[in-house]
Write a structure and sequence with these properties.
Number of helices: 17
Number of strands: 7
Largest sheet: 5 strands, mixed
Number of domains: 2
Order of helices and strands: HHEEEEEHEHEHHHHHHHHHHHHH
Helix content: 55-70%
Shape: elongated
Structural class: alpha/beta
Radius of gyration: 33 Å
């Protein structure tokens, strides 16, 4: 047993000290923050193209509409690096004109930014003409798209003027404010609880998938490099195949977990603080680390075995893609799991070891999963890990000493029987 931990310790310390590991581990979160910051720039650029105030001339040929003198702009808060505020919706200054010719002359003289004409037949046709001045070719984002005046409320008030009371006008502008009532034994859940029911299981899924893909790289590379360099022959003369196999899984697996843990500490943990953990089911919070470690170990032992079976690192990586796909099966059926957490298909995925961690986590966040199903799911993963380790050790012992070719299914079965 001591040799097993010697192998695990060696694999872990050797890999975490590499500059590639340090660069990727600590550089990736900063790269993500940089990309997020750069993504803000186009939005700030578009906000900068929105004018603060738009001067609009009004030609009302119907003489029934009353335009306000000014409409205030809508501001939004921006990061300090871009200034404190920006204009999200421009303000408007309305100026009446007796006819379209005078409004057009003011537009050409740049005393107006635009003018609109409400023709005499507006009530019959519902058409309002809006004129702007354009001196140069515009790009994909034209600022005139953001400067259309707020006409709906003004026109509704004008159409109903002297026809109904002010109370009716206000009700037309705001026809209803829905008050939601639920009758029955089940009380509606808070929005924060509903949000957690989706966000936290989704975050758990992303963490597990990310950990699986990261660890697969370390496990496949570590085993394949020793096999291709024929170092395995020397190592197997000093330790048993089981100690070497399990030690590599523990050591290289811990490397992947360390990397994912650093990423979570630098970026994921602050995001989790924004959610209401108190609204999240206690049973799911307790089960989350257990399911994560079992799921991680289940895929880890398979990746280590693939590294020994493949003829090269690239060949092993291609084989691992098929196993990695099993981890994302629950994502494919996410709508069904969310809609029918107690359905037969959802229960089946909870009991199948390769889909159990993610499926069970989703179900625990949504509903009360029977205790026997939780225990059966955990038991299926534990039993699978033990059986797969025993089988993979037999394949690992022979595979690490075979060079130049990838064994077929019949040959793998012969290795298991003969071992």
């Amino acid at each position: 047993m001591s040799r097993l931990f010697v192998v695990a310790r060696h694999e872990y310390l050797t890999n975490v000290r590499r500059w590639e590991f340090l660069l990727l581990t600590f550089g990736f979160p900063f790269l993500g923050l940089l990309i997020a910051a750069l993504a803000v720039i186009p939005t700030v650029f578009l906000l900068g193209k929105i004018p603060q105030t738009v001067r609009v001339g009004v030609v009302d040929e119907t003489r029934r509409f009353t335009f306000p003198r000014e409409v205030e702009a809508v501001k939004v808060e921006l990061p300090k690096q871009f200034g404190r505020t920006a204009t999200a919706l421009p303000g408007f200054q309305f100026r009446p004109f007796p006819n379209a010719d005078q409004a057009k002359a003011a537009l050409r003289a740049k005393k107006l930014d635009a003018f609109l004409v409400i023709p005499r037949d507006y009530v019959e046709k519902g058409i309002v003409h809006y004129y702007v001045w354009q001196e140069k070719e515009t790009g994909l984002f034209d600022e005139s798209e953001f400067t259309e005046p707020p006409l709906e409320d003004i026109l509704i008030k004008g159409l109903l003027k002297e026809q109904v009371t002010e109370e009716v006008v206000r009700r037309v502008l705001q026809p209803s404010r829905l008050q939601y009532h639920v009758l029955g034994p089940h009380k509606p859940k808070k929005k924060s609880a509903l949000l957690n029911q989706f966000i936290i299981p989704y975050a758990f899924t992303m963490m597990l998938v990310m950990a699986i893909f990261v660890s697969s790289g370390y496990l496949l590379r570590g085993v394949s490099d020793e096999k291709e360099g024929r170092i395995a022959e020397i190592i197997l003369s000093s330790v048993t195949a089981q100690d070497l196999f399990v030690g590599k899984v523990l050591g290289l697996g811990a490397v992947g977990l360390t990397q994912v843990g650093v990423w979570l500490a630098m970026g994921g943990a602050p995001l989790l603080l924004l959610t209401h953990i108190a609204d999240f089911p206690v049973r799911a919070l307790v089960a989350a680390p257990i399911l994560f470690l079992l799921g991680y170990a289940l895929f880890g032992v398979l990746f280590a075995a693939l590294g020994a079976v493949g003829g090269s690192w690239r060949e092993s990586q291609q084989l691992s893609a098929w196993i990695s796909m099993l981890a994302i099966v629950p994502l494919v059926f996410m709508p069904l799991l969310l809609d029918q957490p107690h359905g037969g298909f959802s229960v089946a995925l909870s009991l199948f070891p390769f889909t159990a961690p993610i499926t069970l986590m989703i179900r625990l966040a949504l509903t009360d999963v029977p205790l026997y199903q939780i225990l059966l799911s955990i038991a299926s993963m534990v039993i699978s890990i033990v059986l797969i380790v025993k089988l993979c050790v037999k394949v690992f012992r022979t595979g690490m000493l075979i060079y130049g070719k990838r064994p077929g299914v019949k040959e793998l079965w012969r290795w298991v029987r003969e071992a």
